[in-house]
Amino acid sequence: QVQLVESGGGLVQAGGSLRLSCAASGNTFSINTIGWYRQAPGKQRELVAVYISEDATTYADSVKGRFTLSREYTKNTVYLHMNTLKPEDTAVYYCAADTIYGPPATYWGQGTQVTVSS
Fold it and tell me: How many beta carbons lie within 10 A of that of residue 111, not counting itself?
């Protein structure tokens, strides 16, 4: 199994920045993809940014040029750097990881709230 713990959410004004962290533990060697999703009130959960392989990433069109993924292997941690935040970025942000061993599964963190005020 894999455990994911997010941190770094909060309240920020429009135009500001935040960095979210996702610390993975457990069978991290089995992780295939890892990244971030978000869910705003009344909306479906959507992909924000994901590592689809060790170095390849995919981003939602709405965050391209503003959000950036990075990872620190020694800490089993993935970061989401969010710049030029907009009120429409307000959501609960979830870290998620897909594993390919033992059997394949998707794991989710508990989520962290990001609120962007106008």
Answer: 17
